[in-house]
Specification:
single chain; alpha/beta; eight-stranded parallel β-sheet; seven-stranded mixed β-sheet; 10 helices; ODC_Mu_crystall; NAD(P)-bd_dom_sf; ODC_N; Ornithine cyclodeaminase family protein
């Protein structure tokens, strides 16, 4: 059994590769080439979660069975990341080996890549002000991935911890070389933003419709399990809604369920899956003043596509070394 660790994952996958893999994963799903169940989640009394996500891809270079299992600890004081786990791939090589791939690094990359793909499809072509709400690993990955699809010229950040926000802002400035400001409130951070990413583990909404600028694209990715909430239900009355999976989001997003309970959304009719934009070949014809929101909770097909590409890259690197 082979294990591919974080350092190998990050060496193999560039931002451009992650974007292409994200595109291929959502295209497979939209074309009905994937069988996957909803995420199964168990919560501990201390508040940590364990999730399992099995899937099967029917054909092509990513074909086969796989299973992601991950533990999420929101009090990860002694860890570098809140996520730990593995992606188990059956028949991942010509020899039929079972391969384990580090799940934390894949989760970080595929989540940010999905947001970047949605941004590329939905954000205005001249969008240049990026607002990041949250200061963890996903915040950093989102800066990296969004800068790969838009010519960002300014970054504003907000975090619940002022010290954490200042540290993240310093990283942003070092990484990007751009002007970066730390906002006192979420509303202040997004006031002039074209692209907004919410990447927190908040359990109460901190962003409302009245906070939104006239034109923006939002990637709402932090609240990916029941009980977590970043945006208020009224935001969904002010945006065009896009989803990674209608079934998955409506089963995991407390915010959307609350919006439905309040009569603001109809479950069966709300939200366009991002994969349909890829298979149709058309970008939505949105007016200049339009707001869009991409809500994602993460799908097993993303993990399997990324993991199988990592295995292929690892084998290729090994073969080149042996030559």
């Amino acid at each position: 059994m082979q294990f591919i660790h974080r350092e190998q994952v990050e060496q193999i996958l560039s931002s451009a590769t992650c974007l292409q893999l994200s595109r291929e994963a959502f295209t497979l799903m939209s074309r009905g080439k994937v069988k996957q169940t909803l995420r199964s989640v168990i919560a501990s009394e201390q508040g940590s979660l364990m999730g399992t996500m099995p899937a099967y891809i029917e054909d092509g270079p990513y074909a086969g069975f796989g299973l992601k299992t991950v533990r999420v600890d929101f009090n990860h004081h002694n860890q570098s990341t809140s996520h730990e786990g593995c992606i188990l791939l059956y028949d991942a090589t010509d020899e039929g080996d079972i391969v384990l791939v580090d799940a934390a690094s894949v989760t970080e990359l595929r989540t940010a890549a999905a947001s970047a793909l949605a941004t590329d499809l939905l954000a205005h072509q001249n969008a240049s002000h990026l607002a990041i709400l949250g200061t963890g690993v996903q915040a950093r990955k989102h800066v990296q991935m969004i800068m790969a699809v838009r010519a960002i010229t300014y970054i504003s950040v907000w975090g619940r911890s002022r010290a954490g926000a200042a540290q993240f802002a310093a990283w942003c400035q070092h990484y990007s070389g751009l002007p970066v400001t730390v906002a006192e409130t979420p509303a202040q951070a997004i006031a002039q933003a074209d692209i907004i990413c919410t990447v927190t583990a908040a359990k109460a909404p901190f962003l409302r419709a009245s906070d939104l600028p006239a034109r923006c694209h939002i990637n709402a990715v932090g609240a990916s399990a029941p009980g977590f909430q970043e945006v208020a239900p009224d935001i969904y009355t002010a945006v065009n809604l896009y989803l990674d999976s209608r079934e998955a989001v409506w089963n995991a997003s407390s915010c959307l369920l609350k919006a439905k309970q309040q009569g603001l959304l109809l479950q069966d009719a709300s939200g366009t899956e991002i994969g349909t934009l890829l298979t149709s070949g058309d970008r939505p014809d949105l007016p200049v003043s339009q707001r869009t929101l991409f809500k994602s909770v993460g799908l097993a097909v993303q993990d399997l596509v990324f993991a199988r590409a990592i295995v292929a890259g690892s084998r290729s690197a090994m073969n080149n070394t042996l030559k």
